[in-house]
């Protein structure tokens, strides 16, 4: 049977990851990091569109991959309406929703770029397990005021991929496990997975949770409201303190975890204090999710780029391993998970869902 060639696109807040797969095998991959300084040149997310598309096309060109030989294009999906887990063909409605989304995240650009390249070569484009996969229980949606519902916005693709990988390692199935998955990337999300469903998770974009390399996470809400009406700040100033220029970036001037790790090795005590505070906040939310699972937790899984950093992971392990064994899955399985979605669909083992 002819092998299929798949272009996989994954724009994140601190990187653009690209890969070309032949069936389930990665032929070539690249992760292009974006410093906060580089991204600050763009006044809005939409302005990053040409830049992110160009680096993908340039990389394909440098890698001698002819776009016309691609059979499928798939991207990590962005902030569309809440959906169930699965693979979706990119359609007109999805494009419209992405273009008009009030919430902004780099993953919104992925589907737009994938759609564009697919149109150019006469193929179809897809997304799978976008950041709005919603499996929350009703009780978890209640925030504290009826005007504000808690929302499921998180690294759904990697949460599910790592949880499935862990189940395979343990010689069992994802839908038989009770897991807490903590993705430590540009954003940080911590979810309670109960028998294959993420029944609670922090809104990891601009909602709540631990601070991250570029996000503030939960902030004292009264102080925020007073600042917002003080005439000292624009709406964009306030929003950028929450996403883009919050968290580690605000405290240490960088969104780059590797740079901070080097500073700590060189004896920077302030950097150490901030990183320990981030690990402390992650641990607290893991504790919260343990109560969501009523204390019956099979394992805690740490994943994402920052899970490569032992200062962070050791701190989290020390604070949470009384709950359940902590397993490390540094980096992400997103590229493979996306390619696998296409492979299974191509072979008729996975149905495509329609976005409506
Ligand atoms: N070895 C490492 N040590 C510390 N931080 C790291 C390491 N590798 C990656 N990171 C950090 O992880 C974060 C990015 O994680 P990632 O999961 O790739 O997120 P995103 O998809 O948001 O770009 C960045 O802050 C990056 O600097
Ligand atoms: C919007 C939730 C997903 C997220 O934060 O992804 P990154 O860490 O890649 O920015």
Automatic annotation (TrEMBL):
Subcellular location: Cytoplasm
Pfam families: Acetate_kinase
InterPro entries reported in the protein's UniProt record: Aliphatic_acid_kin_short-chain, Aliphatic_acid_kinase_CS, ATPase_NBD, Butyrate_kin
GO cellular component, one term: cytoplasm
Enzyme class: transferase
Coiled coil feature spans: none
Protein keywords: ATP-binding, Cytoplasm, Kinase, Nucleotide-binding, Transferase
Catalytic reaction annotation: butanoate + ATP = butanoyl phosphate + ADP
GO BP annotations listed: acetate metabolic process
A molecular function GO annotation: butyrate kinase activity
Entry-linked Gene3D superfamilies: 3.30.420.40
EC number, as in UniProt: 2.7.2.7
Family membership: Belongs to the acetokinase family.
NCBIfam families found in the cross-reference section: butyr_kinase, PRK03011.1-5
Protein name per Swiss-Prot or TrEMBL: Probable butyrate kinase
Source organism of this protein record: Aureibacter tunicatorum
Organism ancestry: Bacteria, Pseudomonadati, Bacteroidota, Cytophagia, Cytophagales
Gene designation per UniProt: buk
